[in-house]
Amino acid sequence: MNLSVQLAPKNSRGLLLANPVMTASGTFGYGTEYDHLFDIQGLGAIVCKGTTLEPRAGNPLPRIAECPGGILNAIGLQNIGVEALIKEKAPIWAGWQVPVIVNVAGNTVDQYALMAAKLDQVPGISGLEVNISCPNVKCGGVEFGTTAVSAAQVTAAVRKATSLPVWVKLTPNTADVVGIARAVVESGADALVLINTLKGLVIDIKTRRPVLGNITGGLSGPALKPVALRIVYEVAASLPGVPLIGSGGILTAEDAIEFFIAGATAVQIGTANLIDPAAPARIISGISDYLSTQVFGDIRELIGSLKK
Ligand SMILES: Cc1cc2nc3c(=O)[nH]c(=O)nc-3n(C[C@H](O)[C@H](O)[C@H](O)COP(=O)(O)O)c2cc1C
Questions:
Q1: Domain total for the chain?
Q2: DSSP line for 63-103
Q3: CA of 24 to the centre of ligand 1 (A)
Q4: In this predicted model, what pLDDT tens digit does every residue of 96-127 receive, in sequence order?
Q5: Is residue 293 in some structural domain?
Q6: CATH (domain of 25)
Q7: Ligand 1 binding pocket mutation candidate from 173, 196, 225, 275 (most atoms within 8 A of CB)
Q8: Which end of the chain is more exposed for a tag (fewer CB within 10 A), N or C?
Q9: Is this structure's pTM higher than 0.85?
Q10: Which domain holds residue 259?
Q11: Digit-coded pLDDT (tens) for 194-206
């Protein structure tokens, strides 16, 4: 059974994953926190917490609120900063079999490019995930992801600064995801991650205050899945041949399989890790079982196999 997928076919370094299941940024720390819980080397890849040029303390508490079908989070990109990541985390990753992808977020186009240049030749880093879709920070993230022009500017600047494989993570909080996807691919992205969280609000009716310290937050979990699937389906139809990485509400192997059928080459597991950190391992073996039962010899036979 072949589960391996190539997520940067046009990049000279390439990015071949042993299987198509990875952890989503912000839900699996730097991987090191989970090393003792299960064999994380069996994952397809690990995407680390969103990283900025300077360390960030994040948003005021509370930062997570439950809601029907998911959670709302407003962490605010709390992270150690790119220099500490290079010094303290990358040397550990360099000894790992599982590829680690660094998720980067900037306040300006130049900051994205500067981080990409700093990370370019660091052993232990296999690719960059460009976050232009975080709904929880004031002057970064999603501002760049809501128009094709700004999304393309960030992508082109990162592309110029590094030869690493580059994925761009898009937001559903915009009218034209397909147009933005096209602009980003034309600017040099090797793959697209679809999608980041949907902006939402939860209110405590006793206090009449928002539950989150940041007031609004990003909706993740099962409620997001149909939206993410629809976007994967639409982008796959418009940009055939571009590797798509599905993200949104995947809790089980069956959820992941829906994404492959819709056109995703790989998937990311996010909120599920907060319930069961070993969820990605369970999902990998469930996908393998499904392929055997359905008599597929290769995951690639399933990708984009939606019947209409
Ligand atoms: C607590 C939390 C923190 C997150 N932090 C980041 C982040 O730093 N960068 C990013 O691109 N996405 C971040 N995300 C979004 C996830 O990576 C993922 O795209 C999203 O949650 C949808 O997938 P899910 O429904 O499987 O969680 C975060 C999500 C959660 C729940």
A1: 1
A2: -EEEETTEEEE-----B--HHHIIIIIHHHHTT-SS-EEEE
A3: 6
A4: 999 999 999 999 999 999 999 999 999 999 99
A5: yes
A6: 3.20.20.70
A7: 196
A8: C
A9: yes
A10: 5-57+78-197+220-301
A11: 999 999 999 999 9
